[in-house]
Specification:
13% strand, two-stranded antiparallel ribbon, alpha/beta, 2 domains, three-stranded parallel beta sheet
């Protein structure tokens, strides 16, 4: 069964001519244009209707194999809403497309890590501490080459 999903974004896709149009049509949730309480309400409503919320906590694709710092919003939302978090790692897309928007052959890998339940998320004193925990799990998975074949 395929669940409906929306993506939470930090606003930049909405400003691009073609991608912005597609993102608005797809119902992307621009979390930079709303206050936290509004975002919380919208995400709660989506979850109640069975819609999954997708977020990329780095904000954008890294140009190297080094993981960028994470934004805290999705971790705060998960804690405040009491929902499970399903971390996933995407690797192999560091240079595809190139920074000049040229496509080249390559392989992109995705690995879903074990879910983190709501009780575990709430056990951390802050969203920042929870965010750091999840980032460390993901960095370790990459370092252990668990995400590469």
């Amino acid at each position: 069964m395929c669940r409906p999903m929306i993506q939470a974004v930090n606003g930049w896709p909405m400003r691009l001519p073609v991608l912005g149009f597609v993102a608005r049509q797809a119902g992307y949730l621009d979390i930079t244009r709303l206050g936290y309480e509004q975002v919380l309400g919208e995400v709660r409503e989506h979850l109640q209707h069975g819609t999954s919320v997708i977020d990329f906590p780095e904000g954008h694709r890294s140009a190297s194999k080094e993981m960028l710092p994470f934004q805290s919003s999705v971790f705060r939302l998960a804690r405040d809403l009491g929902v499970d978090l399903y971390p996933g790692i995407i690797t192999g897309n560091e240079e595809n497309p190139t920074r000049h928007f040229r496509l080249k052959c390559g392989r992109i890998y995705f690995r879903l890590l074990p879910p983190i339940d709501a009780a575990t998320a709430r056990a951390f004193p802050t969203a920042f501490a929870f965010k750091q925990h999840v980032r460390n799990l993901m960095v370790k998975a990459c370092a252990d080459h668990e995400v590469y074949p």
